[in-house]
Design goal:
The structure holds two protein chains of two kinds. Chain A is an alpha/beta fold. Chain A contains ten helices and ten strands. The chains are: A alpha/beta, B mainly alpha. The interface of A and B includes residues 115 and 125 of A.
Chain lengths: ~260, ~290
Amino acid sequence: MSRLDVTNISKTFGGVRAVDNLSFSVDASSIVGIIGPNGAGKTTVFNLVTGVYEADSGQILLNGRDLRGLPQHEITRSGVARTFQNIRLFKGLSVLENVMTAADPHSTYNILDVLTLSRRKRQREKQVKELSRDFLNIVGLSHLENEKPENLPYGLQRKLEIARALATNPKVLLLDEPAAGLNPSEVRDFIDLVQRLHSDYKFSILVIEHRMEVIMTLCSHIYVLTFGKLLASGTPSEIQNNKEVLEAYIGEEDASCCI
Amino acid sequence: MDYIISILTFSGITLVGVLGAYLVTGLTGLFSFGQAAFLAVGAYSSAVLVTNYGVSFPVAVVIAMLLGLIAGLIVGVPTVRLRRDYISLVTFGFGEAIIAILNNSANLTGGAMGLSGIPQYTTFPVVLISVAVCLTIVVSYKYSKYGRQCLALRSDELAAKSMGINVNRLKLTTFLLASVITSYAGVLFAFYTSYVEPGAFGWVVSAEWLIIVFVGGINSLTGTVISALLLTSLPELLRFASEWRIFIYCAIVLVIINYRPTGIFGEYEFSWRSLKRIAARGGKAV
């Protein structure tokens, strides 16, 4: 059985069918891509899986457990982590604290430990700090742990979002256009990072991306969406040679355009 | 000297109350326009228990804090689900409702006449210890998973949820802690002034506390503490200016908010390390 199994989910906003009877699956420790033109419903799919919106119908199974209808924080705790298309880091917290915040829901100390300054709290705080430093180290931000996230350059903010997602201890990591706004060398750097994380942590990755370089190098399987519907799915080479996909992206070939 | 001590005592009591406002508004970003109502709950319940029913002071303190907790639950449970702007409306309504109840249950609370003859148990050392304990608790809260999650939630609620934070529960926890701390400040208040009347707990007091939090720096506990001490003693220090003092007070607050929209301290937090860093930077500049 695959790790994440999505069957026949739909979501309408008013009269718009943003996601229409979509099914896909992500195998354990595989990298799967979702591509499609703007407005195809890719991010909505992420929002449905992570519980930002509840799907109107269908099933979202993580290791066989249905996530549909669970509150967002419980979905995250059961192992679905994500990054955001428009970076959403916590202002007012340092880089290190941003990562710690994601690890905090796994801390078991309670309010009494806080009021009595108990040892359990202090030990766990130290533990979380070290754990978070490790995650910063992995993405290469450990020298910036006391900075404010809004002062970091864009590429590093993206990395911080990934470190933060790692700290939630995910089984499936959803990356929403992680390479948007990165320059070519940063993109290559990013591809290396994802491959490294993937082989170290063995989680499944579901990635939305417009940069074909990223999708074609990383993914073993690709789903193509248009207007909320599945247009095609297959291996990178199958998708690259799929005529319907090319049409959806760049339109039909017109003889007058050929020089 | 007595005069200075009395100003300091009063500032200390206000500070304890403001710490509650800081937790809810500064740390979590929920506008509580009824924080002073918890002051009323603490003050009245302890005063009535001691003067009318002869309950011993320590027991009355515990009961007053428990009642603060219950009042916090009554307002908190339904409001934490609301959007931020509605929270301020509900807490405002709650605050005024408490005042109305105090005014209208005259046989128990003395109504608009107030309640007098409360023994003066709150001395300067008591206030000093209370401030130290409450401050330690709030600092410990800020530098725990709760404090970080509160700041995360204030910055971006959606992202906070998708990091696995149970947002409603966190808001409620913070709100309850703030209610208990503020009710305790109410006890200190009642047993210091030895007279309580409903007018002392209206929305004006809540608003004043919000001003204190904002002037100090919305994110900074250091700022809240300093501006609480400063702004409570300021009207007393300005006594020489008689009828002009409220005007001067307002002018000072307006100037600060205009030129430093993030408050005096912004996000700065006092610590020995940051003090050293500033000293080192100053040394280099020279």
